[in-house]
Design goal:
Elements lengths: L1 H12 L6 E6 L4 E6 L1 H131 L5 H78 L4 H11 L21 H25 L10 E5 L2 E4 L6 E4 L2 E5 L4 E3 L4 E9 L3 E7 L4 E11 L6 E2 L4 E5 L10 E7 L2 E3 L1 H7 L5
Antiparallel strand pairs: 1-2, 3-6, 4-5, 6-13, 7-12, 8-9, 8-11, 9-10, 10-12, 10-13, 13-14
């Protein structure tokens, strides 16, 4: 049965694969191998399968290598774009810092101009008071002169009446006329002298009035200029305060409570920001004085913000090239222990990359800690603590006071870690918060 089936198969395949004979000749004999059609078909099918499998495997290998190469290129491109973005953010931060410094310089110059204008205004006010005093003196002198003139006239009239009563009618008309003419001459001289003094006083009064009008005009111009300067200063303070308020609010900190704590720590008084007090009579402050005090209070608030900003971690712990590898929140444990809470952010970089303190503070721990490896803890004001873990070296010791930007250690791979990176934490009142909140909030100012 099998032989007949094989015969039929060979017979049907003989049209496509005729029977072939392969002769093998040696020195003593000649042999041949007969290749039947079924054998040829099987050989060709097997060769085809082997060739197809080879082509398929080669294609798979080529595709894997191409995809791996493109993935590396894409990762390199993403890294380059990220570095460009970091450089742009750094340049923008430097530009913001330069703008803030320029605004501070412009404000100091404007404040100096305000002080000079206030001095000129006080001087003009003193001149006006002196002129008013002079006018009062002139008016009093004029009144006294008129009174003296009236008294002289009354005395002259009384003297004439007394003379007539004394001489009676025995005096001749010529004598009486002569006496009357003498009296008239005396009165005329007195009136002329009085009129001349009056004219001089009226001229002085007119000049004083012109001087007063000039002083009033200068005062109005000075007040207009002061209003412009105050408006610019108030706008500058408002513009400068907005980013600071936003930075602390986005970091989850109350600006009022924060400034109260800073003010308690810096409670000394005096200096250029002390409120102005121009009135010495206890009367209500002038409007310009109130505006100046409001600006000085704004500057004091900005100064307190500056102190608070350096005492809170508004900075990057890594300044070189790095890559964000893990964020804050629940994640899959890199050691395969399921999902766990990650209480910080991870920044992967070169081994030994410098690590910097992100705010002023005091080192409370510097050594080996289970899981963290080599760990540094820094206590800051306002109940804030920062942690720097998996370090390769520690450059500070417990109790040491550090400032923002100080190099405190080097990046490493110590502790429970899968590779070289920095684990960075921020805690407020012992509770872990997202460090990216502080890093992003600092972009509004720094």
């Amino acid at each position: 049965m099998l032989t007949r089936l094989a015969y039929r198969i060979n017979l049907n395949l003989e049209r496509y694969f005729p029977e072939q004979r392969l002769f093998l000749k040696s020195d003593h004999e000649t042999r041949f191998i007969r290749l039947r059609p079924a054998t040829q078909a099987l050989a060709i099918a097997g060769g085809t399968l082997v060739l197809g499998w080879t082509i398929l495997a080669t294609s798979i290998i080529l595709m894997d290598s191409i995809s791996a190469g493109s993935g590396r290129d894409q990762a390199l491109r993403q890294q380059a774009l990220y570095e460009q973005r970091l450089n742009a953010l750094s340049q923008d931060r430097d530009a913001r810092a330069d703008e803030a410094a320029g605004a501070q310089e412009r404000f100091n110059l404007a404040l100096q101009q305000v002080a000079e204008m206030q001095a000129r205004l006080l001087a003009s006010e003193d001149s006006r008071r002196e002129l008013e005093t002079g006018i009062d003196v002139i008016q009093n002198t004029l009144r006294r002169t008129i009174k003296e003139r009236d008294e002289a006239r009354a005395q002259a009239a009384a003297a004439g009446v007394a003379q007539v009563a004394q001489n009676g009618t025995t005096k001749s008309d010529a004598g009486r006329a002569k006496d009357a003419m003498a009296t008239v001459d005396i009165l005329a001289d007195a009136l002329a002298s009085t009129a001349q003094e009056r004219d001089l006083m009226e001229g002085a009064a007119a000049k004083s009035a012109e001087r007063v009008q000039s002083v009033i005009a200068e005062k109005k111009a000075l007040e207009t200029r002061n209003n412009e300067i105050f408006a610019k200063l108030e706008e500058a303070v408002t513009v400068s305060m907005g980013p600071l308020d936003k930075m602390f609010r986005e970091a989850g900190m109350s600006p009022d409570e924060l400034l109260s704590q800073v003010r308690r720590g810096y409670s000394g008084q005096g200096g250029p920001l002390t409120p102005l007090t121009l009135s010495t009579k206890g009367s209500e402050a002038h409007r310009d004085e109130q505006r100046a005090n409001a600006i000085l209070q704004g500057l004091d608030r900005m100064n307190l913000y500056r102190l608070a900003a350096f005492k809170a971690p508004f900075a990057m712990p890594v300044k070189g090239s790095f890559r964000w590898t893990s964020g804050f929140g629940t994640r899959n444990d890199p050691k395969g222990m399921g999902r766990r809470m990650h209480e910080g952010v991870d920044m992967a970089g070169a081994y030994g990359l410098p690590i910097h303190a992100t705010a002023d503070g005091v080192v409370t721990e510097a050594g080996w800690s289970s899981g963290y490896g080599r760990l540094i803890k820094i206590r800051h004001d306002f109940g804030i603590e920062t942690r720097y873990a998996h370090l390769s070296a520690i450059n500070v010791k417990v109790g040491e006071r550090v400032s923002r930007g100080d190099r405190i250690g080097d990046m490493g791979n110590s502790g429970r870690s899968t590779g070289t990176h920095l684990h960075y934490e921020i805690r407020i009142g012992g509770r872990a918060v997202n460090p990216m909140t502080f890093i992003k909030a600092a972009n509004h100012v720094f």
